[in-house]
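Let us practice reading a record.
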Amino acid sequence: DIVMLDGVTVVYRSTVDVFFYVVGSADENELILSNVLNCLFDSVGSAMKIVERSSLMKHLDAVMQIIDEICDCGVVLECDSNHVIARTPAASKTGGDSAAAADLLSGEQSVSQVFNSAKEQIKWSLLR
């Protein structure tokens, strides 16, 4: 579904208890935004057996890596979910076996470091 709201174009899709949104400026092409949304939805769906809020939160690092592979600073890099999954190491490990879960837990520290780094960058950009 596509919505024009307050000068932005919003494309969204939902599952049981998860809503996926892709937001662009009012002059963005809705088809491109829709392709990005479909890529995100398909990539997350193939990385996890069940796409629901608890599973998404459990594998948030994989979801963040998928988003990072799809776009960077608002620039769309990839719209093919197969390429995104192939280049996302954590997403391929979320299949459900216990070894993959242990690998994800070991990568948890690096995700927190990434979030801390992002917070620092945002803080410094606001202080300029």
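A brief commentary: The radius of gyration is 16 Å.
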